[in-house]
Amino acid sequence: MLITGIKSRPVYDELTPMTSGLGHVTAAQGSGGKPLVRLLGEMNPDQLAATTVLYSTESFTGQNYLADIQKFKVCGLIVFPANADAVRGLDAFLATAKMGTRLYISGSEGFIGTSMQVATSYGMNRDEVLREHAGSFSRRVWCAHCSHYSENVTRRVFACPGCELNLIVRDHYSGRLAAFQGVKADSEVPGELPENEELDT
């Protein structure tokens, strides 16, 4: 569980097998492979046989658990080179998923957030989804001026790649946007920027 002083930040779960599931799908990226391997190790053979694993090898911390994941006899393993591809893969999987499917998500906050947007679009509720944070604490930031998303932001002030404005990252996480919000940093006094500190992630 990730605990910070940011009240709007999601409180995450610990991945454990959901016995109520008739089928299981996991979506993980990079360091999220560690809790995924633990989850698979806790599943019984019947649960493993009903589990499809979606794993992205893109990692912000250089962690890759693919070799460990491949040791489990799951129903299917689909590997993606990028996190965005894995999220699209989750979308395609859920489009044909049956009632009783349970979803497990692990990885960075941005990956969990975008995966949850997909799950929510299919009407999955909190009883059907578990999320565990792993790896980087960098932030996904949504620009309030051009709606561009920036991944892996670690500094309080940065230039938005979408509109090139200097943004200050607020300590407010939007579940709807699956991101922290960034607003123009020098809106009160043009050219005067706040201290560019490392974010308390």
Cα-to-Cα separation, first versus last residue: 14 Å
The best one-word shape is: elongated
Strand order of the largest sheet: 3-2-1-4-5
Decide which structural class fits the backbone: alpha/beta
Question: How large a portion of the residues is in β-strands, by DSSP E?
Answer: 25-35%
| pLDDT < 50 stretches | none
The average pLDDT value, as a whole number, equals 91
Describe this structure in words.
With 201 residues, this protein is an alpha/beta fold. Helices cover 22% and strands 29% of the residues. It has helices at 33-42, 45-49, 66-69, 83-95, 109-121; strands at 23-29, 51-56, 76-80, 101-107, 129-133, 139-143, 149-153, 157-159, 166-174, 179-184. The strands form two sheets. Strands 3-2-1-4-5 form a five-stranded parallel beta sheet, with helices on both faces. It has a five-stranded mixed beta sheet with strand order 7-6-10-9-8, covered by helices on one side. Strand 2 (51-56), helix 3 and strand 3 (76-80) form a beta-alpha-beta unit. The longest helix has 13 residues, at 83-95. The model has no long low-confidence stretch (mean pLDDT 91).
